[in-house]
Design goal:
Shape: globular
Number of strands: 7
Radius of gyration: 16 Å
Strand content: 5-15%
Number of helices: 7
Helix content: 40-55%
Distance between the termini: 18 Å
Structural class: alpha/beta
Largest sheet: 7 strands, mixed
Amino acid sequence: MPSMCSAFLSSPAALPIRLGKSIPIARTGDAATRGKTSLAKLLARKLGANVVLEEPEANPFLPLFYRDMRRHALSTQLFFLFQRLHQLESLRQPDLFGKATVADFALQKDPLFARLTLDDNEFGLYSRIFDHVRPQAPVPDLVIYLQANVETLVGRVRRRGNPMEAGISDEYLRAISDAYTRYFYNYDEGALLIDGSLTASAIRV
């Protein structure tokens, strides 16, 4: 029986991997690495796998969020939550003899962003919704977390030069980095690999 795996990448940097059924991967945005989408595509090609990619451009609230995070955080988070659930729906009952799947996002990291941008009442509502729908998503067997320091994250955002991201503050990136560090320090949902030096060109599958 062929092995199956799905990989889920998230930004700033965590890629979830599920062996046997799926493989997720996480990355923090290390300047020495290529983008999470490039890495997901590379892994998929090496594994002969399907690939599921994040679609931030489909979120109509995201440009509004970057202009006014406080006002548009809840709608942005909920759109991403249901979008990603829809994308992962086909992995709930995978074909045991089918191809593996690699994705460039991890549903598990969504609450990290929500906690940073929502007020207590909004986060309470979001958490109830998340806890209700989370069982619908597959749990990764392995997460590859590509860690980077805050200065590296800031540099990547600045070099990207995306006008929509111009309002992202260094403090926000630092808060995200700290949230990832705490989350993966206590991560117990599967195997975890932390590597701050992994590059797409170094992947050999």
